[in-house]
Amino acid sequence: MINPELHKKPVALDRVGHRDLKVRRDRNPLAAAAGLNAFFLTAAEFVEACKDYPILFLHAGKDDAGKELCAPVAVFGLKRGENLFWRHGRWDARYVPALLRAYPFAIAPTPERQYVVCVDEDSDVISREEGEPLFDAEGKASSYLEAMRQLVEKAEVEVERTKAIGRRLLELGLLQPRRFDATLPDGSPLTIDGFLGLNEEKLAQLPDAVTLELARNGLLALIHFHLASLGNMGRLLEVHAEKRAAEAA
Questions:
Q1: Distance CA 148, CA 154 (A)
Q2: How far apart (Å, rounded) are the C-alpha atoms in residues 101 and 148?
Q3: Tens of pLDDT along 148-199?
Q4: Which of 164, 106, 180, 130 lies closest to 26 in space, CA to CA?
Q5: 1 domain residue, yes or no
Q6: pTM of the model
Q7: Which helix (H) or strand (E) holds 146?
Q8: Which of 40, 54, 114, 247 could form a disulfide with 75 if both were Cys (CB 3.0 to 4.6 A apart)?
């Protein structure tokens, strides 16, 4: 899955054309996400991600059949371009989303509907001069590259499952626009919107058969992880206020 805000110059990895490509293990690839205020999560990640981040949803266009799509995201900041988890040159959270951990690698479909591993040639952890080689002299992938390949391939399977879950939530009318209003310590107001969250009233009104379906397929548990995660919005407000105070000092 390619994220245009993260992968600036993704190209299909080629064992011939990229034979001399290296990765700078002395640099932190997560620095590329310093300006992202949210990032995609697969459904399988909710149980861990909800401990660190608010989990909300974004409109994500339509699928090939014309059905509305939405994407769950871990929220990193309260305004565009703000990532409150990138602090002092490191990631300040226990859990990092899988597709972000894989950066600068990703996976993308070809016109023939196959999938290829891609690398962001614009990443400053990628070099042709120094670092750990991605391929050996015979063109075989290094253990590091093989681990990244397995990570993006496993995540891509979960991406498709997550799309189906989002479609079901929208079909049931369980998502609605969410707005968060707060007052910062200096008295200034702050509004966070543009996200979707659970409509708890609609959930309570579902027929018993549908509620049982959601419980059996694991979607009800995901809904509870989403709701539990919203408590992390308070942490973001605190860090945001601290950052503003430091900038004003």
A1: 10
A2: 9
A3: 999 999 998 899 899 999 999 999 999 999 888 887 777 778 788 889 999 9
A4: 130
A5: no
A6: 0.90
A7: helix 143-171
A8: 54
